[in-house]
# Entry
Amino acid sequence: MVNRRLLRTKAFQTIYAFRTLERANYQLAFDYIAGQFLPNLDLMIPKEEQMPKLEGLRKLAEVHFEELFKREITTTDIPADAQNVAKKALEIYREAVKRDRTRITHQMLEDITGIYTDYLKLLQLLLDLADVAVWDEQRRLLESEHKTSRLGENQVLLALRKLPNFETEVIRNNAKWGDEDQNMMRKLFLEAILPDPTFQAYLRTTKHSFDEDLAIVLHILKTFILKHHTVVEYFEEKDLNWGEKKDVLKSLATKTFKINTLEELELQPLAMNWEDDKFFFTDLFNYTLDNDLKYEKWIIEQTKNWEADRLAMTDMIILKMGLAEMIHFSSIPVKVSINEYIELGKNYSTPKSGQFINGLLDVLSHKLQQENVIRKSGRGLIDNK
# Structure
């Protein structure tokens, strides 16, 4: 199932992507300014004579844009033309950032909920492979020892196919495999599953017990669907984050078949309480971005010998996320939050980031608890009244 460590990782990746987009939009604002001060080739004045004035206006517009951006107006007597272009550039920048934030937040949620779609797709692949097994036997013109249709009679797969909500969920989440995937499935079955000794032994038995049917389903799932390069490459091509999701998918898929009777078979939820986790996920993302300047000020105060731009962007994002979580999620112990962001730093930042993040968040947590900014309450936590 999806856990909060995965959600923190996805939030971090999304904030990093958003910051990258912000930088690109910032540069595009300067490109816009430059485009407004190009020579007018329709005038009788040669462009060489136009350029000195235009260059001067461009530089003044850039200066004014940066002042507006930082909300620090210090330059006076800027021509109206340069001021208007700078204001328009800032407006374009802000609109682009707002649009990107909306889009990337939606995409962030889709990436997580897409795990459930992939989970359904893996289960559907089991059923489609059973259909391929029936097709394989029917296409043989002569009697063969390979009674592959026995996989189609597997009682666990039949129960999965008949689950009341399974087909509805597959359709609703667009988890069906397309006609263009049939060749991939047939190749997987004929070249990998069919020659497999365990599968061959299964085919040699006319009637199977529940345990035997369950065992072969788990064998196909773990050996071929979750690990075979054909399936892995399919998902990797469609999702750059497949490597991070595969463990969750493995957990969901295998837990589905952790049953003692057919009556216990049921679809697994994306998370134990997805609504709560979704609020945690989106709130962590939004709190981190909305309090960016305040958190950066606190961080810089504790790193007096470092300029903000000398800190790795990944470290800065992780530190700000840590502050957002410690401040805004009162039921999560400070130590838990710090440990989670230490791990995030080790996995996604520099070799020394874990130690750096640990030290800085520890100092900030004590400072902010003394100032009553961090207030923890709940079972086993300090109640700061």
About this structure: The CA atoms of residues 367 and 373 lie 9 Å apart. The mean pLDDT is 92. Residues 113-264 form one domain. Residues 80-138 form the longest helix (59 residues).
